[in-house]
Write the structure tokens for this entry.
Amino acid sequence: MDNNHIKALLIDGSPDAERLIREELKEVLFSNIDIEWADRLSEGLDIIRKREVDVILLDLSLPDSQGFNTFVKVHVHAPQIPIVVLSGNSDVLLAIKTVRAGAQDFLVKGELDAVAAVRAILYSIERQRAMNELHSMLLIDRITGLHNRSGLLTLAEQQMSISRREKKGLFIIFVDLNNMSLTGNTNGYNEGDNVLIETANILRKTFRTSDIIGRIDSDEFAVVPIGALNDTTSTMDARLLKNVQTFNTRNNNRFELSMKTGAVHYEPEETVSFEELLLLYYK
């Protein structure tokens, strides 16, 4: 986003609502908001994965998702994008619950005022920017730019909560670097940092932006692939191996990456935390 141009994604099942919002925002002379419309949650999530979005305007009642869970699903896929809920429901308790869960604002469609709507959009972007900066300081690993252990635990617990609510299991993929201590001792700590950075780059390339990727410890990483099934985890593992081999081939023998992977399946009826899953895997 620049100072004069905002890319907004409207996820709303009603063409009439989409047209009304566009018309009302046009009335505000100082607004320069381009709106892309999706009439289903699935379509909106696909746009989030593929294109840059500055703010999400979200109706909670969609053809393929209803109520508070609609917000949760979008927030999990786009935790760093501000979400302004545009609801036909004036339920105060729902509004409080949604804002507490991370929504930047909750506006009732029947009470929508164009100037107030634009103000809410602008303020939500600035508040989210400040939150993202704080998030980076507290939950991001300094070397790799991935989530640190605290960030990984926070997001993974959120995903496990969704898993329990929807009664769907999820996978956690573990990645351990081989000979990391040998690399650091032989070539110096800067080279060891480079190994971690290149590993992080390969993990980003292998997995989707919506997946949760974090560094657990010095040479240990974990990934929570959102919506992964058993057959897709093997595909991910093969893709990761291929990307490592490609890196080693093109690395001019500066150092060679070697890693082993493992996976744990979490069932929604289990009463374990993500921290306990880590302990069970590494015991």
Residues 146 and 214 are 5 Å apart (CA to CA).
